[in-house]
Amino acid sequence: MRDLRALESDLLHALQRLERITKFADVLVEASEGEGIRIERKAVTPSRQPTLRGAVFRAWAGERWAEVATSSLDALAISRTVEALERVVSKATRSPDPPGEANTARKEWIDRPARPMRDVPFEETISLAKDAQAWAMGVPGVHDCQVSIAWSEEERFYLNTAGARCYQVLPRVHGLVVPLAMEGGRVEFDALIDGGLGGRERLDFLRPETVAQFGRNATELLHAAAPPTGEMEVLLDPSTTGTLAHESFGHGTEADQFVRDRSYLKPILGSVVGPEFLTIVDDGAYPGGWGTIPSDDEGHPGQRTVLVDRGRFVGGLHDRETAAAFHVPATGNARRADFLSRLFVRMTNTYVEPGDWSLEELVRETKDGILMERATSGIEDPQGGQMQLKVKKGHRIVHGERKELVTSMALSGKVLDVLRAVRGVSHRPDFEISPGFCGKGQTDLLPVGSGGTYLLTTAIVGPA
Amino acid sequence: MSAGGTAADTAFRVADRVRAAGPWDVFAERTRRYEIHLNGRSIEMVRGPIEVEGYGLRVLRYRDGRTGAGFQASTDGSDAGISASFASAEKLSRFSSFPAKKVDLPSPRSGALPATEVLDRTLWDDPLGSLQEYVHVLLGAFDGKTDVAPSFGSVRATLTETTLANSAGLRTGYAHTTVDLEVAVKSFGGAEGAPPGEYWVNEATRRLEPGRLGPLVEEWCRYARDVRRAGPTPSGDLPVVLPASVLTGILPSVIGFRLTGGARLLEIAPPLGSPWAAESISIHDDGLAPWAIASSPVDDEGTPQHRRTVLDRGAVSALLYDTIHAGAFETASTGNALRGIQLGGFRDWRRFLQPAHAISTTVAIEPGSGGTDAEVIEAAGDGIWVQQLGWAIPDPISGAFGGELRIGYRIRNGRLAEPIRGGSVGGVVMAPPGAPSLLSRIEAIGSTATLCEWVRSPTLLVRPLTVVGVRG
User: Does any CB of chain A come closer than 8 Å to the CB of residue B43?
Assistant: First the structure.
């Protein structure tokens, strides 16, 4: 990997140029590399991360931000890029100070796992993927199994005209096993997924019995019934609870939506929104999390931010601009998907804190309803306060007992109704954070973690 | 060097430096992008030029009756960078194994490329000026409205020169534009004290059309107002009317996968001739549909695009291939190698970063005899019209889909009635003969097709789909 710090003098020179015409400018330089392997029964497809690197310069243009970006990092390209930004900024007619405090942090974070994936021979990764495939396909009825393993090392270097200098290298590892079962033209699958910051140890979840269980799950889904529909008691598994946290009090608390007056949550900041045992957190400093970032893309450290504290909605996620608007500190949530994408307020790892119920107690408490398992997607409605979560499968709960398997379904409802109806959250041994990707609108996908334990509430269940 | 209306030569420069026996191809892009971001009625940020020049280089190696394919993408166009990319692709090809004895890369053709319209010349010549004018018209369309305003949005224009080259001697290219529009329209105020409502617009097109904005904004405002007064969604297996703007979020992910060589390799593609849809429906894959996001003269491997019937009166009539899947089944590529497909069917603008996959282009549904939207609604009798789903995000493998109803309308006595919202609508897009699915339960097909991102379709009446409302 090329060390982006070698560009420091060129970048500082560029910022000095911009400083003559703007009250604030910053630059983020990014490079990443990595490898991946995807296998199916009939094909093996290795891949390498693109050799993609580049820089984005941002400057305050009097009354708004202006940005330019380039995928070339030689001195000439940087100079041309800065010229383009100078042309935009020099036309600015007003020049109040940019909103918020400029960060001045000077830090470096280089995450060095015990065994980095870059040191793992490709043959070993392929062998692990083939083993996982064999463990799944050893289950009668499993027709094929897709296994993907990928790692990346992302390097980000941030500098600004106020003196900030933040450098970080983040190694991410991700594994996915999808056994496919087929019968009479019907195809079903289950998905075993994990990932986070780290090295080879992140793939230790790929164990024979675990993978085989997912193979059995896929075959069982071929004969699963359709889920019941309507308003009912829903017991969410940890992945679904995490998606609930992400879609309910994640997007709605991204404070750029507050500034735009586009969040149904803004008027109720400080209000009680759930029971006393409900706490929702965004944590950019969560050890090893898929969405963990030591520093955001304005140089603020990733941190634990409590959004709902024992049932009360206490705060949002901020970049420098929204923090200034609400007279609070920035929370380390200013993120770019990459150097080609603009900065937005974004989540990191968002989760519901564990409670004190056991799963068995929650099943009994549910009485009649549905256990929703394996979240596959979610979407929020920040203005209207509704949400939609989808899961791959579930189990009926009848008279307080877990019963037959059912196929995919969607949960929908008003966030505040769903949170007010929360009756229990299970204990810490059930806690999981799942890796995923989140967009702002339909674009700018970046890695986020979502997590929690089992959570019991009431919502509408429909087809998915 | 230039080709097909583009001055860029990225792929050709890479090709000139590849010194290798055996097949290879390169797909390259030189892109400029400009964006204007809105905060309410003010401009929050202007971005651009965002400049990217890069290529994806694929090396194919045959051994033991199979093909090894190695792919490396890079923005490093220096001699050293190209050599490193080639070495990486070559190395990856040694670990790759695909069941194709041979892959036929497209050869140079005599004559012009197939014609389609993918370039907004005005936007190309003055991107920032065109965007600024568009935003001016967009915001102006809200003038005088006291109960509705944009709260958030962006317009992003991408101008790309795509070039392709391969070891069979192909050297071609074309220029194209895309525009991504996102606007959240908020309704508010009034004496009734109802909470604000929002209609969220997301649209990918090939051109800026400020002239369309006036009537469009009126429609968006009406939907945003109706969100505030919407009642609960009913429950049951109901007749459901789906316009093209909703179908584009449902059909392509499933049809675009299940009817491809990729699905055939997994042995989950339907057999040719099998009836997987109602007899009344025919569906084409149209890579040349004017101004469609998936259209281009050639696909992302350089094979000329076509219009091809994939479902003929309900029966599967063709599968779609890129070159490598075509090689696996000893058939020819259908021009369906596309790159840059992301979650939910979104096509990313940095396509050179990804290898090509076999996938549908524009899913074009043959118009039927159902008449106007009003006549399709009349045929429904009592049911619902879906105006917008939260995110249908179908599962391409099982075909299941479902989404929260953001805004829709009750249909009563054959006419649109009150707005509804909440709950969900879903089912299975396509299923084996005898199993219920959206495509097998189409009862009426409108007579006019509308292009909406990945779909060109008339309005469809499906009887029934499962609808789950608040009082389920």
Answer: yes
